[in-house]
Automatic annotation (TrEMBL):
<dbReference type="InterPro" id="IPR029058">
    <property type="entry name" value="AB_hydrolase_fold"/>
</dbReference>
<dbReference type="GO" id="GO:0051792">
    <property type="term" value="P:medium-chain fatty acid biosynthetic process"/>
</dbReference>
<feature type="domain" description="Thioesterase">
    <location>
        <begin position="25"/>
        <end position="252"/>
    </location>
</feature>
<comment type="similarity">
    <text>Belongs to the thioesterase family.</text>
</comment>
<keyword id="KW-0276">Fatty acid metabolism</keyword>
<keyword id="KW-0443">Lipid metabolism</keyword>
<dbReference type="Pfam" id="PF00975">
    <property type="entry name" value="Thioesterase"/>
</dbReference>
<dbReference type="GO" id="GO:0016297">
    <property type="term" value="F:fatty acyl-[ACP] hydrolase activity"/>
</dbReference>
<keyword id="KW-0444">Lipid biosynthesis</keyword>
<dbReference type="InterPro" id="IPR012223">
    <property type="entry name" value="TEII"/>
</dbReference>
<protein>
    <recommendedName>
        <fullName>S-acyl fatty acid synthase thioesterase, medium chain</fullName>
        <ecNumber>3.1.2.14</ecNumber>
    </recommendedName>
</protein>
<keyword id="KW-0275">Fatty acid biosynthesis</keyword>
<keyword id="KW-0378">Hydrolase</keyword>
<dbReference type="InterPro" id="IPR001031">
    <property type="entry name" value="Thioesterase"/>
</dbReference>
Amino acid sequence: MELPAANRMDKVISCFKKSPDAVTRLICFPWAGGGSIHYARWGNVLNSSIEVFAVKLPGRESRAKEPFFQDMQQIVDEVIGVLLPVLKEKPFALFGHSFGAFTGFAVADALKRLHNLEPVHIFLSGASAPYSETRIKAPKRSEVSDDDFLKWLISIGGTPPELLANPEVLKLFLPALKADLHVVENYKCQKPDIPLLSCPVTCFDGKEDVPHDLQAWKSVTSGDFTVRMLDGAHFYLKESENEKTILDYITKQVETSGMDYL
């Protein structure tokens, strides 16, 4: 039996602060293995002109009993299936870090191709463009043993040490992380000959992270393209100073584009 629209929305989206009068919505996509809470609380930090929707994927949080998605199309179909009516109401922007940069872009791509809807801004963080050589040649992490996987996880930082030290918690956490990496490692996307999008695109990254081919993202839009490098490694955005910088920047960009839209 299909859930009512409001229940489907609550299942897929975390929104800590409902702002029906907001000028713009910011839709946020989690990193691999991540939940929605980190972004949902941005709704309490940003001013009331921006309403924050944080995407909640199966296999975690209140959806812990649901099977993980196997491919990008499932994520795109679910997110658009739930959000399409509200995305038609008012301007929206997208933010995604790492795995979330790919899912956010895949959603933007489908929205434009299938529904002629476009964000006012796309914010992509910590990821090479999916069609870049850097990305294509990256090792497939989802296929390695748990021991090697853990070594890699420790090396990129961002995972609380107490989590890594607790085998029971790890057992719950690793499957979600590997499932998301499986999705992104099998996501195929051709470099566009002609940019499909025309909205501004901003790429953020940590200066100490492994190098990403951020410039390759420029091909997705005919609009403005900006790169912002911040101090820190892969999870630089969890550091409070960087988070403030990101949120101030997003607010300025989104409010400006929201006004242009009116």
